[in-house]
Amino acid sequence: MQNKGLIKLFALLFGLVSIYQLSYTFVTSKVEKEATTFAASRVSEAEDGYVAKREEVAASYLDSIGNNPLFGYTNYNEAKKKELNKGLDLKGGINVTLQISIKDILKGLANNTKSPVFNKALADADAASSNSDDTYIDLFFEAFDNIKGDTKLASPDIFANKGLSDEINFQMSDDEVKPIIRRKIDESIVSAFEVLRERIDGFGVTQPNIQREGNSGRILVELPGARDIARAQDLLSSTAQLEFWETYKQSNTSFSTFLIQANEKLKTIVEVKQPEQVKEESELDSLLSDVSADSLDLATQVNPLYELLIPANPGSNAMFRAAIKDTATIGSYLRMPEIRRLLPADIQFTKFVWERPSTEETEVIDLYALKSNREGTPRISGDVVSDARADFDQFSKPAVSMTMNTKGAKEWEKLTGDAYTNQTGIAIVLDNKVYTAPGVSSGPISGGRSEITGDFTVNETKDISNVLRAGKLPASAEIIQSEIVGPSLGQEAIDSGFMSFLIAFIIVLLWMIGYYGKAGVFADIALMLNILLIFGVLTSLNAVLTLPGIAGIVLTLGMSVDANVLIFERIKEELAKGKGKSQAVADGFGNALSSILDANITTGLTAVILFIFGSGPIKGFATTLLIGIITSLFTAIFITRLLIDWYISGKGRSLDFSTGITKNLFKGINVDFLKKRKIAYVISGILIAVGLFSLLAGPGLQKGVDFIGGRSYTVRFEHPVNPSEITSELNTVFGSGTNVKTYGESNQVKITTPYKVDVEGIEVDTEIQDKLYTSLQKYLPDGFSKEAFVLGGVDEEAVGILASVKVGPTIADDIQKNAFLAILGSLLVVFLYILLRFRRWQFSLGAVTAVFHDVLIVLGVFSIFGKLMPFNMEIDQAFIAAILTVIGYSLNDTVVVFDRIRETLAERGWKGGSNINYAINSTLSRTLNTSLTTLVVLLAIFIFGGESLRGFMFAMIVGVLVGTYSSVFIATPVMFDALSKKITSGDAKPSAEVE
Q1: Is 540 exposed, middle or buried (0-12, 13-18, 19+ CB in 10 A)?
Q2: Roughly how many angstroms between the first and final C-alpha of the chain, as a whole number?
Q3: pLDDT at 274 exceeding the cut of 60
Q4: Which of 85-94, 255-264, 419-428 has the weakest average pLDDT?
Q5: What contacts 99, CB < 8 A, 6 or more positions away?
Q6: What is the C-alpha to C-alpha distance for residues 859 and 692, in angstroms, rounded to an integer?
Q7: In what order do the strands lie in the sheet with 385-392?
Q8: By three-state DSSP, how is residue 404 classified?
Q9: DSSP E strands, 662-809
Q10: At what angle do helices 640-648 and 581-613 cross, to 10 degrees?
């Protein structure tokens, strides 16, 4: 081997850089352990909420020592930025996909036009978007073109308005306007991206990740380690629409008139049930009893509004009060056109807005009547705020202090002057909720300074000031997909992932020594360097390590072994020919190189496709697989060669590449594989037929939420539970379709429900959590609160919701489409690669047939045994990753066999297929050795790798077994049968035909 010195230098530098990069991870780990120990010494387990208190103490400790020098080259804060990123499944946190509303952006660009053509086109685009893969803007333009008549996009009441006058004029055609609107939408999405990034930077998690997904208007946000999930969701979905309104006075008689007329009108259009008697006395009961004693004695009547509304506190600027549970009903009444028409002329444009509940325990909130206009615009909007910060009010309570720009200061002075004159309040509204509505007691306020007060926590004032500084989103942002993992589940994943990795690693190391003796030791050294390089590259690229990523690294062990096995088997063949050790090693490495490259390239191609079409943890799996392929090639081809060359260059050293047990293993085998191909065809045909029958007419595949949409929750209880019993109870709450199955231990279940799958918003998530808590309360420990249930796993008991996933129907459709394209794309790419490499379509046909065979059998197994196995076998993105990996592995096997066939045929000719049998027999040692090693690795992950990986690993195990079989009994026979008899019966060396 030439340039040994250069390779040694490169390996040394590569290894040192990897160690240096990983050192930051060791530094942060050491410091964080010290912080945890310090917190445990300061906060006793006997204290209530000791877990949260310890986290606060640990965070404070880390803040205090963050810039202290460590080991002479770094500090904690710097090391934290450079450590190995851990994904949600290892660290806990939240991953969401936000959909920025293109519809809202279009309406904003059109200045909220009343144009019937424009609004009809929006409605048609809404309807079409649920069944189309086209972007919303394309659907809007198509809908507009279909109905526009003489109306143009450049009409004065659409896009040729004052706001766009610099770019769009009345003379422009639709084709000229469309690219401008597309650019404006893209600018708005970029603006939304920047706003969200600023908010996230102020949230306080380390290593957040935010990415745009093409031009779809989707933004992916990942917050590893985020503990307060509700806070994170509010931060991301809040539009930060800040508004200042003047309120109406309680004494305004027009509202009394309106209330009486509205109540009477509602009696004719709605059905109202008598309220049930409440046994326990609470704040709400006390208020309702006061209302029942009113002079009108309305409690004895059926009154749709009177029985829901409560008089506001005298002296406040609210108009009414109501129970939170009734706010949706009251809101629906007040939005009815026939009710709005009853508003007297002097208050006809009133905007009704609810107060923001101060705590989760709040039962009653205020309803404010705000002075509005025909357009529904506020007196002052939030874009005048130049700065905002978390502060404390005069009573030392958390508040938000704001500073306005010059324009805002003037408007603020006028608004406060009007409120002082009219003796009304100023409602400060954020995202359609009143945060505070103070009166003005000392005349107009100049200078543009104001304050938002209320029952806030310090975190809430931080978040509000954060979103106000960052600015409002240009359009609403809905969470269409989310994954939430509790910290305890993340720690369990780390433990199980490390355990599976360690066991698989030790087994592989021992196997190589047991099979190849001293040569196996050199392969093990190269293998250990390979692992170091993989982690070093992951850290250098700032890539995220996920649980499937650990599986990818462990799988890389098997692939790395495969390269060494190929090399060692070829060296043994050269030694058997009587060559000297040095020459045998050189020829062995040279002859194995073609097979190694082909095998790794085909696997790499499937990994690239997986990276392109996958998302989240699956992309992590593909990343580690790709890195592993590159580092495996380097260590197997160069490092192992360096070590072997060094060893055999010494005097009196022998290297046999085998042990006493394995020396003559697989020698003299001469199986006529081609003769048995018809039996193999029949066996495979039966297996595929049974699988297809199960897929099409039997139970079929169990689709997870990734493919059908919905929500799934991993819930842990204190004691074992009966999934069937829970299913029955939840189906009465959510309707049919809810599925509950044991997930790991008998006290842990996975709940999947399609309930309100089409409805977006945090409100629906909260509603489902409420229903789950209420329905499952009897299975929870006594006194277990809803907050503890939702944040399951924040303490050592880890009871409650450990993880949740939400997938909207649009995302589910996209995932299905991407999965189909990924599988189809991988087959096409591989077909073309093998065609290019082997120059005969028959080789490509054999390889692709074997892959189809393997995929169909895996699908059939999952269909037949889906409900019988004691672990999750749902079809999700991880399963698609498994299928693509099976494709890669099957091709890996097939290509190695084809390479040997090509080499043998070039030397010996076809001879009726006897030389094909010879080629297969000569690779049998490598095939079985690699397959067995890979299976052992996969079994280690399957047993010790955690529940979330079991279905994934089961698919891989089945795939490896079937792939090993198909490379010998399907791929090669199909290729042979597709060739003409004239070729296969000839004796000539067909080097020109095959090469």
Answers
A1: middle
A2: 25
A3: no
A4: 85-94
A5: 217, 218, 477, 478, 480, 760, 808, 810
A6: 8
A7: 385-392, 398-404, 449-452
A8: strand
A9: 710-716, 739-742, 748-753, 800-807
A10: 170
DSSP letter for each residue of 134-192: S-HHHHHHHHHHHH-TT--TT-TTTTSSGGGTTT--TT--HHHHHHHHHHHHHHHHHHH
> For position 227, what pLDDT does the model report?
63
Q: Tokens for 834?
A: 């093998």
Which residues neighbour 560 within 8 Å (Cβ) at sequence distance 6 or greater?
Answer: 526, 527, 530, 628, 632, 635, 636
Which tokens is 792 given? 């399951």
**Interatomic CA distance for residues 844 and 831, integer angstroms:** 5
Residues in the chain: 995
- Are 782 and 797 a contacting pair, CB within 8 Å? no
CB 384 within 8 A of CB 420: no
Cα–Cα distance measured from residue 743 to residue 62, given in angstroms and rounded to the nearest whole number: 36
pLDDT of residue 275: 46
Of the two residues 661 and 973, the one the predictor is more confident about is 973
Q: What tens digit of pLDDT does each residue of 52-103 get? A: 678 778 888 888 898 899 888 899 988 888 888 877 777 777 777 888 888 8
Cβ–Cβ under 8 Å, residues 277 and 510: no
The type of residue at 150 is: D
Please answer whether residues 620 and 545 qualify as being in contact, where contact means their C-beta atoms are separated by less than 8 angstroms. yes
Burial annotation 840-875 (CB, 10 A radius, 16+ → b, else e):
bebbbbbbbbbbbbbbbbbbbbbbbebeeeebbbbb
- Collect all residues with Cβ–Cβ distance below 8 Å to 217 and sequence separation of at least 6: 99, 100, 101, 102, 135, 136, 185, 189
SS3 string of 302-327?
CCCCCCCEEECCCCCCCCEEEEHHHH
H/E segment holding residue 492: helix 487-516
**Degrees to nearest 5, angle at CA 812 with 810 and 815:** 115
CA distance 42 to 50: 10
For residues 463-489, average pLDDT: 69
pLDDT-based confidence at residue 487 (cuts at 50, 70, 90)? low
Strand partners, 35: none
Cβ partners under 8 Å of residue 651, min gap 6: none
Contacts of 644 (CB under 8 A, 6+ apart): 519, 522, 585, 655
pLDDT at 934 over 70: yes
Q: Are 14 and 533 spatial neighbours (Cβ–Cβ below 8 Å)? A: yes
What is the DSSP annotation of 449-482?
EEEE-SS--HHHHHHHHHHHHH---SS-EEEEEE
Alpha carbon 601 to its chain centroid, in Å, reads: 28
Helix ranges restricted to H, 653-749:
677-696, 705-708, 723-734
Q: In the prediction, which pLDDT does 809 show? A: 66
Both tokens of 46, joined, read 């006997």
**φ, ψ (nearest 5 deg) of residue 112:** 50, 50
Question: Residue 464: is it exposed, middle or buried by C-beta count within 10 angstroms (0-12/13-18/19+)?
Answer: buried
Q: Which residues contact 778 (CB under 8 A, 6 or more apart)?
A: none
Phi, psi of 867 (to 5 degrees): -100, 0
Lowest mean pLDDT across 234-243, 287-296, 829-838, 929-938: 287-296
For residues 899 and 449, what is the distance between their CA atoms, to the nearest angstrom?
Answer: 77
- Average per-residue pLDDT in the chain? 80
Q: Closest Cα partner for 388 from 193, 242, 541, 173?
A: 242
- pLDDT tens, position by position, 713-725: 888 888 888 888 8
Across the range 227-238, mean pLDDT stands at 69
Best CA proximity match to 803, nearest among 585, 489, 534: 489
Q: How far is CA 163 from its chain centroid? A: 38
The model's pLDDT over 743-799, given as tens digits with 9 standing for 90+, comes to 777 888 888 888 887 776 667 777 888 888 888 888 888 877 777 787 665 554 578
Unique residue bearing structure tokens 């009726």: 912
Element (H, E) at 929: helix 914-944
